[in-house]
Amino acid sequence: MSHILRRLGEAALQFRKVGGSKFLPPIISRRRAMVLRKEWLAEGKEWPYEHIVPGKPKNEQPYNNGKQRGHKRFAEQAERQQKIDAAMAKMPQMIADYRASRRIPWDAVSPADKLLLTVRQIREKYVYKKLK
Description:
By secondary structure, the chain is mostly helical. The protein has two domains: 2-57, no CATH class; 72-131, no CATH class. 53% of the residues lie in helices and 5% in strands. It has a two-stranded antiparallel ribbon with strand order 1-2. The chain is rod-shaped and about 110 Å long. The model has no long low-confidence stretch (mean pLDDT 85).
């Protein structure tokens, strides 16, 4: 490839006009030109065709100063753990409130209901209606 570039020069890297309005692709494709450019720069030579085949622009500062961002779950792990600990601290009180709301008030249940209804029916009559 480099021998073609030496022989033809810039013409090998540019589109060729054939006839009146027809264009053909360059003899050396853009991808191969980038490979050649990389080889030239590795040998310490200056790439003379920078105006035709420029390399990728160099970024002065690397992305995120070289630090990897990592997963979102790792960044939010401490905050999430604090929320979990706060919720777990409230849990015994929440369980006690739930059990108190589901407890059947046997003092309020009439003696006739105690004889005629099942425990489930009493629960529906006295507890579930109170929750609605």
